[in-house]
Batch of 4 targets.
Target 1
Amino acid sequence: MYAEVLIEYPTKKIDKYFTYEVPLKMRNTLQAGMKVKVPFGSKTINGFVMKITDTFNSDYELKEIVEVVDPELKLNDELMRLGLYLEEKTLCPKISAYQTMLPSSLKIKDNDTNYNFYKTYLMLNKTKKEVLDYLVSYGKENKQTILLNTLLKEEKVLKKDYDSYTVKALKEKELIKEVKEQEYRINKSNLEGLVKHPLNVEQQKVFETVKNTNEFKTFLLEGITGSGKTEVYLNLIEDTLNKGKTAIMLVPEISLTVALVNRFYEWFGSRVAILHSALSNGEKYDEYLKIIRGEVSLVVGTRSAIFAPLENIGIIIIDEEHSDTFKQDNMPRYNAKDIAMVRCKYHKAPLVLGSATPTLESKARALKGVYSHLKLTKRAGFGTLPQVTIVDMLEEVKKKNFIFSDELITKLKMRISAHEQAMILLNRRGYSTTITCSNCGYTYKCPNCDITLTYHKSTNNLRCHYCGYSISKDSVCPNCHEDALNYLGLGTEKVMEELQKIIPEAKIIRMDQDTTSKKGSHEKIIESFKNHEYDILLGTQMISKGFDFPYVTLVGIINADSSLNIPDFRSNERTFSLLYQASGRAGRSNLAGEVILQTYNPDNYVLNCVKENNFNKFFNYEMNIRKILKYPPYYYLVSLKIIAKDYDKSLENATKIANYLRKSISPSSIVLGPTTASLFKFNNTYRFQIVIKYRYDEKLMSVLKYLDNIYLNDKDVNLEIDIDPLHI
Ligand code: ADP
Ligand code: ZN
């Protein structure tokens, strides 16, 4: 008996199967999908059993498998196939596909740590009657008899609660014994305080439609902020579990997970496993064990939870489907939405993508009927959508209001004195790479690609990193002719200081990278703000999504337009979504909400769509741009990055690749570049970029695979291929 084993070696070069002999003692137990230790060269390393065979033709001597790493952690047939899909779709090495599916605690580096966690208990080793007889004959009271008496009442006690001398003495008398039991680090039973809202008419309709689906089908649930999508998810999952099936619920980030996970524990208690990167390795391992042992039926988690080894999946739900976090930006560059589709197809189950601001791709598919389009158009509770006001900062600057407009300050004071709460979002995206006029808000854009040009200090020019267009930086603003072309940039700390000066009585709490770096700090901030210990929550985009604070009636957004300046064709879409989501934090209960958008571009179309709470209007506008400029969803994209320590080598290879692509792929596809990548010099390497736009191209995948293979073994030049990139 032989096994074909995929070696865990973190380089692509040996991404192929090696044959090993299966030792006698493993012949009945070894299966495909198991992780094993095998001799390789002079070392013993890990590998995955891909296939078990009876015959093997070769003259060289085979080595034997050393041991099975953990017989419980076997990838099932579905996941083994999914690995091949990942390889095919993302051009990643097989081994990295399989590694992605297992929690990090089981990957190469950690393979010698044992994450199983045991507690030791004490139990009686004799019948109760025998122990009672002993106690009577013993005749006095001491620590030993106390322990024995406890064990007469309770079946077992924790060993660590008793002193070792007592335990030792009783063990020697063979009156008690020790037992080890595996414990999970996370133990939640049903949390108290469960409130189930009866679904309203719209929610009920969505619920019924999805619930009655017994085949693979993708639903886009487009529901405005506060429309009660979560309530629908919970009901759908409950229905699925009642049918004896399992469910996966994906959320974009851990910041959203905290509030949501509690909601899931309330409903489903110990039937839930959670998987996300903020768990310790031991916690991840335990949660994974619960899943693989079939002890839970619902997995809630971030991106990689899509690989949870559940059997019999009855539904997958992806909340905030527009979120970029569902795409992994290193190898394998997979999108959890694609994986969800493959898994739902396999299990003949519905897939629900939910958002208030779905991606243009998803919405376009829903409008074409590729996805089923479901809608929630009203706020579920008492809340109504907030009133949005745009404030022109050009006017404010004249009054020397550089950060806060008069209107925002007045309203903040009003809300605080009425014992309501406010949130202030400082939009800091888009500042680091581009030049903006601080007088009129002008930014340089590429006439071909409609993205912001990136400033290169060394040559004092601005370049488009899609098509290579470049112009030199002017000394005065080309629009208003003021000497005010600058990087703009404001930190949350500075903003907080200023605000405290203007409104000394306000209790302000700050949430950004700095204040949330410690484990649990995030939750603390949210908890204390929710408990109304603070009047104002001030933060970066982190505060924009998901939270449901009933006393927040005002949301202020500073530099609302800055993220429009990110040199990426999706920056309109991301800005709309950010501002719309942030606005959605206001007025979520019976208190009416209000939003103030501060901007240097009050006439900007995107901002005005936010003001009107009108996603459809934004959608139509943006689709038109995408169509004209041949971006998704009208075209598909592939991005290639050519990376080398040597500038000339990098450029030379990039040029070669671009020329080769132009010759080899379909003439209807467009090859842009090579240009400098948006992150041009990084880690002492030079990075060039090629972008392919295509609609149908039969040759493309095989050409990409060919190129990928050529550069596999190139020590100096690295080629990174990203299929359906989210950022280019
Ligand atoms: P979304 O995820 O769509 O933004 P949520 O699920 O957070 O919305 O719901 C918004 C608020 O409405 C929550 O406080 C929730 O408890 C409440 N809610 C949801 N469904 C109902 C309902 N059917 N009746 C009353 N309140 C509801
Ligand atoms: Zn361009």
Target 2
Amino acid sequence: MEAPTTPEESARAVAEGFTRLYGSAPEGVWAAPGRVNLIGEYTDFNDGFVMPLALPHTAVAAVSRRTDGRLRVHSADSGEGVVTLDAAGLRPEDGAGGWAAYPAGVVWALREAGHHAVTGGADVHLASTVPTGAGLSSSAALEIVVALALNDLHGLGLSRPELARLGQRAENAFVGVPCGVMDQTASACAAEGHLLHLDTRDLSLRQVPFDLAAQGLALLVVDTRVKHALGDGAYAERRAGCEAGARALGVRALRDVGYARLPEALDRLENPTVRAYVRHVVSDNERVRRTMALLDAGDARAVGPVLTEGHVSLRDDLRVSAPELDLVVEAANAAGALGARMTGGGFGGSAVVLVESGDAEAVTKAVEDAFAAAGHTAPRVFPAIPSAGARRVS
Ligand code: ADP
Ligand code: MG
């Protein structure tokens, strides 16, 4: 298991990198975490419920304002040089391209929201410990760290949920990825030691205490390190299927189909694919509700089977799993895990596994052995420690 460098440790290195690159010290350094979703998958575009936690892995950015309109961005991780853009002239259709679209998209979204101060430009240098493309929201970490830095430097006074929505807007409209608002909200609003329960209809938040260690438990993240091309377009297809289901049922969104009415709703749907999608979304909203009730009752152990049930639903009804994710769940549960499921968009990426603390090592080894036996690349396994949301570090 690997432990990430703390934001405070990387802040110094990032500030030094900034000074070397741009010739003067940054005005400040900010950090924003990646996230892992415990439960509630493909529910966020159905006005449903999600329950992510922020990881100790963070994007750290050193930022200074400019006044000449130039936006200069650099990532220590990208292998590219400094990308220079015109802050006032950014347009989604120009496709800033590559990773720079994420910070540029945030500047564009702030400008579009009327915060013209950002058109003065900025210098940004960043580095991140969030694995990219692993379903752990390295993209949202990037958006939120830049949004928070500009919010602080320009005194824009935006709230955390507002910053999350701006980050989502940047990703949807500027980068061109049709994601929901969960990732950015988790990165912007999470609290240490807590899960974040988010109602994606009214965006109301609840911090749910999540002290697994006190109950002798641990949550592991298993990054399978694969991403199947099959996933391209799958999100849009699932989304369209869910919208078709809501239309056929005469509701605004699938969130409005109560779990008690699920059998009756399914009877009314003729298309078997739409029926399966509806069954997943409505039952996963119910699993979020059950998970929260179990945690409120101090019974985190009982969340395990709920996770596995969620995996089966994602695998069989929504069909967004992958052989590697199924193998994690199967091997972990066979080795005594309390439950496990894929997390994030699927087709690869990561899984979460709930274990008795004392079983963490054996379960990790069982998953690693199963991957080796199947000829897969070794997975990356680390504990999901519920960490703080975005913040200024120096
Ligand atoms: P995820 O958010 O699950 O990690 P995405 O595909 O949404 O996956 O976002 C990954 C993209 O975010 C990368 O391809 C890259 O463009 C950008 N990104 C993330 N972290 C960094 C980084 N440290 N430096 C440069 N770009 C990054
Ligand atoms: Mg992402």
Target 3
Amino acid sequence: MYNEIDLDKIDIHAEPPIEEPVRQYYFMAKCHQWVKDFEQKNGRSPKACVVNMGCQMNARDSEKLQGILCRIGYAEMESEDADFVIYNTCTVRENANLKVYGRLGVLHGYKKKNPDMKIALCGCMMQEPSVVEKLKKSYRFIDLIFGTHNIFKFAELLWTALDSERMVIDIWKDTDQIVEDLPVERKYPFKSGVNIMFGCNNFCSYCIVPYVRGRERSRAPEDILQEIRNLVADGIVEIMLLGQNVNSYGKNLAVPMSFAELLKEIEKIEGLKRIRFMTSHPKDLSDELIQVMADSQKICRHLHLPLQSGSTTVLKAMNRKYTKEQYIRLAEKIRSAVPDIALTTDIIVGFPGETEADFQETLDVVRRVRYDSAFTFIYSRRTGTPAASMEDQIPEDVVKDRFERLLKEVQDISKNMAERFTGTDQEVLVEESNRQMKGYMTGRLSNNHVVHFPGDTSMIGKILRAHLDECRGFYYMGSLQQTQNI
Ligand code: SAH
Ligand code: SF4
Ligand code: F3S
């Protein structure tokens, strides 16, 4: 119903309403009037550029920012040479932060040429007080700064920034609020992320996410199911359920519900064809969930199961709450219940105190589990986390050497694993035209592998059957067997 609200009919001279999300629609209306005045003065619409710098959860937040900007009347723009630029930042590793400071220099250049330009920063990095201090001191050209907990207030904050010349800063320490029914502008017409929970309670000792995203909060199942039904009515065939630890979904609801139960409800939605989710924490992955995956027609044959380290000693210091053996047993259980599943993971090398023997344990798990792919990270010291003050931080050259060895192992295994599907027929969701090969389309298999095949843009958003002719390491070349939507 909120999608149908006509901003022109809202009385912007009245007092702002108190309740959400009505209050935000009031501020959208105020910004919309500002846009109309801009158009009159300049003979064109103002342009906005939303830059996403973080994980899939941040990407979904960026779609919400974009949705509000579109409703207000901004034209979407890829280039940062726009009238309004917003960076949705990440702070999970130090280099994510450094990237932001580097790019701000370029933005300042644009602003000198276009003094009316407004620059905003939001997202996880803004939840760190030291970052905001630095921006206040040395980056005075920024117009608006807000954090993760009050992102639903974007329309109101944007209005405040448009209406003033000062630097507007609004950061909340935490929240228990979940505001529903704000506009969203989706990147793809056929697939979409869906938040099922926010925050994280796990406090892995290296990780900053619980500090910048706050405590775990699950959305009500009815809200999730209704959002998915609306998405399906709008043409979406694949959804990705998002949360830092989806396996602990529902624990804090008034009527508790498990993630497996939620999946069973989602499976019933007619017209929805594929269900993905991330991320799963191994400590909470239940037998019930494995069974639901095995029985499901819609849950994709892919599970991202972050290992972090293969050494039980390091896992303990990381506060991961599982051992090497428990992890391996879990992976075996999943592979035997769902034989064609692709397993992927995240691994950190160089955690404080990690010895060569610990590292060998990680390599051992990699060789035994045989991941279809793995994201490998060099440990990054995050101020405020317990690991940052641990003794025995590992020297850079030792970490680099381990990282190279791990990467090689992981890549050799992934190539080998991908070969097992060569020659099979698979369902593929066609996503886009191939940018390098003219006349080719690119699609995604249920197991998250990518395949390129001859085709045309009329196929985008359809699920077709393709033969995987050849494996080229991390992707396949294929040919369509059936051009009818499955
Ligand atoms: N909630 C997810 C992960 C979110 S962060 C989970 O628990 O799996 C994504 C990945 O970044 C993590 O899995 C971890 O491998 C990596 N990461 C987090 N903090 C890090 C740090 N301080 N240094 C290096 N990598 C880190
Ligand atoms: Fe970070 Fe651990 Fe939470 Fe994942 S589960 S977000 S790694 S604290
Ligand atoms: Fe980064 Fe925040 Fe996601 S720190 S990984 S964008 S939750």
Target 4
Amino acid sequence: MKRNKTEEDVYILAIESSCDETAAAVVKNGRQVLSNIISSQIDLHTLYGGVVPEIASRKHIERINQVIETALSDAGMTLEQITAVAVTYGPGLVGALLVGVAEAKAIAYAADKPLVGVHHIEGHISANFIEHPDLEPPFICLVVSGGHSHLVMVKNYGEFEILGRTRDDAAGEAFDKVARAVGLGYPGGPKIDKAAREGDKHAIRFPRAKVDGSDYDFSFSGLKSAVLNYLNHAQMTGEEVSVPDLAASFQYAVVDVLVTHTMEAARALGCGKVAIAGGVASNSELRSEMKKACKKAGLTFYYPSPVFCTDNAVMIGTAAYYEYINGVRSGWDLNAVPYLKLGER
Ligand code: KG4
Ligand code: ZN
């Protein structure tokens, strides 16, 4: 979408608090990052092996004001100079979302600025716009995070068709569960990614699930069970498990399915552009295998830098910009919606 030169610049103050990162950013005209502050709670949740919702909400409350102040000062801006305030309002942990939503409403109301509620997955998809000025819809986006695995046709800004989704665990969830089972700890994705670099991805042949009735849906619970069975069997027979080989083989099984489904969809729909998004999009094997597959098929491949794959507020500011220029405004009754569907308002 081209901007008219006579239009004024749009500065969005964006807030993200849907899970365990408290984040704020200032984004100019959708694609220019003026600041990007992320306060991660990973250290706290590591103690419990996963995100504890109650702790997440409390930490968001403690940190959010400072994170927003720093985002504004890093951008060299005051609240008065901001055009609109954007916030993730779903999906996510309800208590965590509420902290961001309440804060954004208070700031926008006090400063007399418009409010734009943003869908978290739309944010992840929009992360691809940040570093690719040439990228415009339509394109296919594979969104793989801790809570979601979706194959999405991005028809236009803010306009999506879901081609496939997971029937059970999200891809990131599978990474986290397998990492816990082999004692690598939380968050599992980066730890499996690292361990896999020392392993052989062909060492163990794990199953690739095909879901009945859909070409593009995913299922990762069978793969997770296969890994657990492999570990149990090794324990019972006294065989030593090579964690790097297991990590590499499991990771390859996940990536193989993700790449195959994405390429099938691109071919069937005649779409020449493929993007990836979400925390798992920072996985090195997924990035390199998708790059290879796209090159072979003559498709252009887009992927965000790792810092824009995992949760951040820049992606929310980018998504909000396109919603804002399309006239979307949220009311003061904006609420957290933990199971918000993509494309719904
Ligand atoms: O997008 P995100 O930060 O939060 C959600 O919206 O869920 O994604 C977090 C997920 C976690 O499951 C984490 O293990 C996974 O992304 N992840 C990775 C990698 N980095 C983060 N999975 C595989 N490889 C990675 N390098
Ligand atoms: Zn996310």
